[in-house]
Design brief:
By secondary structure, this protein is mainly α. The chain is built from seven helices and no strands.
Length: about 190
């Protein structure tokens, strides 16, 4: 049970705001009407996150942390640019296979950013699979809670007259700008 709580905490911790920024950039176009597609995107991200946590937790993957800390905001900026480029009404684009594949791929990078902490939090002698499943279940719960609040706020905005495109441009501009500043701070070379 402790791992589930830690997974929720990992997502909701404001010190790890990069994860929140990624989620916002990912669903910049969405409202409550898009809840199912948003849940699938969140699950795709968690899938990628889970794979690298497992591989790194088993000691099979070792990556320079400076590069991962640099690549995380790159994924945020890329997602913001991708969503901004597509337009809010891009028919069929929101759930495209490329979007889901990129989301899994970016989840791989984000998972590497947390893998060393996950290895340290495990109890000595305990296997990795069950704690990892519980942790990622918590991550998924936390993401879905955050996204539900974001979608509710977006729906309130729509009711107040904010168009989907205005919402998308604003969210992508904010997340992309913050990500760009993070990229400059984290240059590994």
């Amino acid at each position: 049970m402790n791992e589930i709580y830690m997974g929720v905490e990992h997502i909701t911790d404001l010190d790890g705001y990069d994860h929140l920024l990624y989620l916002l950039a990912l669903v910049a176009w969405a409202s409550l009407a898009d809840a199912w597609r948003v849940a699938l995107l969140a699950t795709a991200f968690t899938l990628g996150h889970s794979i690298t946590l497992l591989l790194a937790g088993m000691g099979w993957v070792h990556v320079d942390g400076a590069w991962i800390e640099f690549l995380i905001p790159v994924t945020i900026a890329a997602t913001a640019l991708w969503n901004l480029r597509r337009g809010a009404g891009a028919k069929g684009q929101r759930g495209s296979k490329l979007t889901y594949l990129a989301t899994v791929g970016f989840g791989l990078i984000h998972g590497l950013g947390f893998s060393s902490f996950f290895r340290m939090m495990r109890e000595e002698g305990e296997g990795i699979v069950m704690p990892l499943l519980r942790f990622n279940f918590g991550v998924e719960l936390g993401q879905l809670l955050i996204l539900a609040v974001c979608l509710a706020l977006a729906s309130l905005g729509r009711a107040a007259g904010v168009t989907a495109r205005e919402q998308q441009v604003f969210v992508c501009a904010v997340t992309g700008t913050v990500a760009f500043l993070m990229i400059l701070e984290r240059l590994p070379f």
